[in-house]
Structures are given as structure tokens and as C-alpha cells.
Amino acid sequence: QVQLVQSGAEVKRPGASVKVSCKASGFTFTSYFMHWMRQAPGQGPEWMGIINAGDGSTSYAQKFRGRLSMTRDTSTDTLFMELRSLRSEDTAVYYCARGQENDYFDFWGQGTRVTVSS
Amino acid sequence: QSVLTQPPSVSGAPGQRVTISCTGGGSNIGAGYDVHWYQQLPGTAPKLLIYDNNNRPSGVPDRFSGSKSGTSASLAITGLRAEDEADYYCQSHDRILGSSVFGGGTKLTVL
């Protein structure tokens, strides 16, 4: 069965970076586009970006360009999301998700809580 | 401020029917992009409920249905059950932003 298992919660200081991992199993990883979303407390999800797990090409939402990096390791079927120059507004639960052709997300990771606080 | 607008809350008694609206604009739903719906139980990740406006993934009961018209979409839930109490989110694509966009979510309370 499809599973996306994310790394554990993180607490960071403003200005620091965070790197979250997402290990995929149960499907052919390199055949899919994978996405990262985040969800701040009390809000809807926010799309951050997409990575082609096959060739590693990426596209990021405008608001994150310059401080967001998405990579993948095809030897372990693992995604990585790094967000730099963290500020308090980046406090949220971060999710990886598998994308389908019509831009919907059929499987999600369990989420990783990132807290940015001084 | 979310690109897609949903009512903050809806409620209904067990067995009743409720609908949740999702209103967009000419650059997203009105531009012809499909609408997808997710259910989020407390403390869990969103789960795909409806895709491509009115299709249910395997395992989703037929009590859940979706529709789309013009710049809006709706999720209908019939035969309300206690376990339907959750947050519901709509999602589509926005041509101007060039990205997926979500609604702000609707909290369903089963009375």
C-alpha cells in the first residue's frame, strides 16, 4: 500500500533552516510528481512546490522562491524539503503528497510540525 | 485570505444532508479547472474525498458527492454520521498564480 512517512517535529530559531524528509513506499516513486504543502494553525493547506521524482526537476510557488529547495534520493525513494531563513510565520505542519495528473493529491504524509520561535 | 472561499462552518443532525460551497473566480474554477475535495479529521493529514469535481476514490462512501458550475463547486454529504465530523477543503488550480490553491476550510459539526 502507498505510504509516505515523514521525519519528526522540529523547533527552529528565526533565521535558521529546516530540512524535512518524506520516505515513499508502495508505488514506483520515479513515476510520479510529488508535492509539498504546509498548513498553518487554523488555516487551509498552502501549496509550496512540486518535484518530478524521476528527473528531479522542480517548480516552486512564487512566495517561496529563493529560500525553498526540494530534492529527492531515488536510491531510498525519499523526498527532502529545505526551507531557509525561517521566520515565525513559517510555523506550520508540513506535508508531502503524491500528485496525480489533474493536480490533485491522492496520498499524503502524516505531517511534520515545524515551530519557529526565539 | 484564501483564493477559494468556503463557509467557516456547517452543521447537521445525523441522517441529514448538508452541502459545502466553494467559490472561486475566473482564473481558477471559472477558467475550467477541476475541483477536488479533502476531508481532514482532527490531528490527521488531509484525505482525498472527491477528485475531478465528482469522482470518488476507492473506499469513499457514495454518501459523498461533488458538483461544479460556473465559478463554484459544492460538496454534498447525505445520511450524516458522527464520523463525518471534520474539516473539509476544496482545491483547484489558479491560472494567474500558476499553482494549486485551496479553500480556507469548512468545519462540519454533526449535532
Characterize the structure shown.
The complex is a heterodimer of chains A (118) and B (111). Helix content of chain A is 0%, strand content 52%. Chain A contains no helices and 11 strands. Chain A has strands at 3-6, 10-12, 18-25, 33-39, 46-52, 58-60, 68-73, 78-83, 92-99, 105-108, 112-116. In chain A, the strands form 2 sheets. In chain A, strands 2, 4, 5, 6, 9, 10 and 11 form a 7-stranded mixed β-sheet that branches. Chain A has a 4-stranded antiparallel β-sheet with strand order 1-3-8-7, with no helix packed on it. In chain A, strand 4 and strand 5 (46-52) form a beta hairpin. Chain A is globular and about 40 Å long. The model of chain A has no long low-confidence stretch (mean pLDDT 97). Chain B contains no helices and 9 strands. In chain B, strands 1, 3, 4, 7, 8 and 9 form a 6-stranded mixed β-sheet that branches. A 3-stranded antiparallel β-sheet of chain B has the order 2-6-5, with no helix packed on it. Chain B has strands spanning 9-12, 18-23, 36-40, 47-50, 64-69, 72-77, 86-94, 99-102, 106-110.
Shape of chain B: globular
Unreliable parts of chain B: none
Count of DSSP helices of chain B?
0
Q: CA-to-CA gap between the ends of chain A?
A: 40 Å
Mean pLDDT of chain B: 97
Q: Strand-and-helix sequence of chain B, N→C?
A: EEEEEEEEE
Please give the alpha-carbon distance between the first and last residues of chain B. Answer: 28 Å
The helix content of chain A, as a percent range, equals under 10%
CA radius of gyration of chain B is 13 Å
Tell me the radius of gyration of chain A: 13 Å
Q: What is the strand content of chain A?
A: over 45%
Strand content of the residues of chain B, in percent?
Answer: 35-45%
Shape of chain A: globular
Which chains have the largest interface? A-B, 20 and 25 residues
Count the helices of chain A. How many? 0
Structural class of chain A: mainly beta
| Helix and strand run of chain A | EEEEEEEEEEE
